[in-house]
Specification:
alpha+beta, GTP Cyclohydrolase I, domain 2
Length: 211
Amino acid sequence: MEQLEFDDNLMDERLMQDRVNSPEIQAAVLQILHAVGEDPARDGLKRTPERVARMYAELLAGYTTDPMVVLNDAIFEVKYDEMVIVRDIEFYSLCEHHLLPFMGRVHVAYIPDGKVIGLSKIPRMVDIFARRLQVQERMTRQIADLIRDLLHPQGVGVVVEALHLCMMMRGVQKHNARMTTSAMHGAFRANLATRQEFLENIGRGASPLQI
């Protein structure tokens, strides 16, 4: 897969537009508008199918990205074997069950074994997996597995906290419920003290999730 160009925050939307079938998305949105009894010709909805197609091109851009290609050029050999933590990485994703957003923050830690990854690449890694139709459990595991496979560190820990609109807006309608998932490899799974150090660090000064 060809390497894609990134800025510090978002993947190049123009490239993503080339990789989705915009006419099919627009036709599907038009059909939904008819199905719910709306008039797609009225002023507020005339360009809604086009806007939705552009939105999905951006929100699902992770499908077009090979993370190994994007991240491989930012791995450096460094003599450092203490815990590295990047916390409070904001993310937005779409639940694959209802196509509604879930959002929150990701905390990542690893203990290097001769290799580290550029700081900005960890949030980009989160974006690659968040910008797909997802479930939180799988996304948590994907982030941890990728760091393990890229760096072969002594250990990796990932914790994801999120609010799910599919639970807040519909169904049980529990507005303050949040979901926490974790994935641990190596020292973080085998050593209680290592895992506890990570959890204490991300819990210190943490603010509640808000929409």
